């Protein structure tokens, strides 16, 4: 097998955050981002939304050059409304419904509907690492050895319309209607984090899960050290234990004791 990762997509991942106060012009966004081939677009709705808005946004992106779309939203809809959301776009492959009464999964047509009890209120809820969200597939395995598994070829538009590497970041590259996306994805400043691999991250570089794990570069165990371990991971690879397991201590404390 080839020991390198090649992707046919110009943009691997787009995240667009929407809050009730957001005034995104989705027709414009589709126009400017539609020039690129995109693997996954994630639409994250934080707050209470009419299902009709979600249907209309999905309809706008229906003809765009996007492989698949994921929607994240609070579980506020009746079954018939969920059916209408799924039918709005055959690109919709995952619909995550947070703040749900119980965890369960349904399949409708091309889409997996995942009901999750977890409360998700905004972009600060992102970046959690647990045993359950490690992913074992060939693409991630190769990607993790060569590029950053979260930020490579990612474009984000936060709820205020600011373009960022990730919506949780402070650094912004301007409003989406002022940004030249072709220049942006070729600029060294924007691409700075794209090539940081798990093999360069403290603790992660010693972890057996490093090629199955999304690498968050926002929530860090040492905020001033871009090469520090994701702070939302409680795994100690030196002991093979997660927080809650008998005998667990954090990897940071374990390293201090050595
Ligand atoms: S230690 Fe690093 S590579 Fe291992 S599970 Fe945690 S975040 Fe992922
Ligand atoms: S860098 Fe962290 S907060 Fe940003 S999208 Fe990735 S996992 Fe989420």
Bound ligands, named by name, code or SMILES = iron/sulfur cluster
The topology string of helices and strands comes to EHEHEHEEEHEEHHH
- The number of helical elements comes to 7
Rg to the nearest angstrom? 19 Å
- What is the residue-averaged pLDDT? 94
Low-confidence stretches: none
Largest sheet, described in full? Answer: 8 strands, mixed
| Secondary structure: number of strands | 8
Q: Order of strands across the widest beta sheet?
A: 5-6-4-3-2-1-7-8
Q: Span from first to last CA? A: 38 Å
Shape: globular
In terms of structural class, how would the helical and strand content be classed? alpha/beta
How much helix, percentage-wise, in residues? Answer: 10-25%
Strand content: 15-25%
How would you characterize the overall build of this protein?
The protein has 258 residues and is of the alpha/beta class. The protein has a domain at 11-47 and 121-191. Helix content is 20%, strand content 19%. It contains seven helices and eight strands. An eight-stranded mixed sheet has the order 5-6-4-3-2-1-7-8, with helices on one face. Helix 2 (51-60) runs parallel beside helix 3 (79-88). The mean pLDDT is 94. The structure holds iron/sulfur cluster (2 copies). One iron/sulfur cluster (SF4) binds next to loops.
